[in-house]
Fold these 2 entries.
Entry 1:
Amino acid sequence: MEKYTPYAHVLGRFLLALVFIPAGLGKITGDPSGTMAYMEAMGVPGFLFWPTALFELLAGIAILIGLQTRIVAFLLAGFCAVTAVLFHANFADQMQIAMFLKNFGMAGGFLVLMAAGAGPMSIDGRKATDA
């Protein structure tokens, strides 16, 4: 199985990034008013919309290409946990329970990525072989 590990790293990073790149891009190119109103209804200041959208997009790209993967994975693990608690803790709603668990599952995946690193097929992996 070890010969497939580099490909598993790439596919895993792609699948994790697949959540954040379109979400960030959609926020940046779309109308922010609905998301800002939702954030404010949940007690989060609306002005955090733009930093959040940029973080989602740039962090997703960094995970995809394997750039500063351990640091970005750690930050995304925290982001997933915090957003689960802030936005998906309505346990009376089955969908919110699913979203809560999805976010914590992704946080777990990011912690594994933080521990394992991006793998050889990444910018981080190339830097390691160039050194």
Note: Residues 2-126 form one domain.
Entry 2:
Amino acid sequence: MNNGKALLIVDVQNDFCSGGALAVPQADIIIPVLNKYINEFYNKRLPIFATRDWHPLKTSHFKEFGGKWPIHCVKDTKGAQFHPDLELPKAVCLLYKGMGPDTDCFSAFHAKNAHSMSFHSILTLFKISELYVGGLATDYCVKFSVLDALKFNYKVNLLLDAAKAVNIESNDSAKAIEEMVKSGVKTITFENLNI
């Protein structure tokens, strides 16, 4: 079945969750909610995509090499693995980003699958026109993925109950949501999911 809708789960990896190298506050509480969305999309045979940071050990993204962030989500490490409670189906399409030594790659639209195919190309192939987006973090990778999706003219739904922010400044989450809404995103929660 294909009604043009797909679920995008952004960076729900150990290093962004409790105890991780770059833990997002309260990240773990969205995982059961994400699992409900996954279940709904899976049962309706709709595509599910999951991005993950997949950094080399040396990258300008990290503080140690001139960047902003502590070392996190280095490829093939425990920190880069998905949170163990995230119930991704075997059919999930995995997308890797931040693999270059000098790239930040916050957006899912900078990610590629294992065959080096871009996210936008995959969505075009699947005839996807509408995305439902949740994950980590609202004020970074979720926001940039949503804004890029809107630039590509996708209809976008932000899953308010399935995303959490870093909040370096206390109002970063609110500002990010406001920016996304002004750009055309629709905000929803599981209760008003209609796929």
Note: Strands lie at 5-10, 48-53, 93-97, 130-136, 155-164, 186-188.
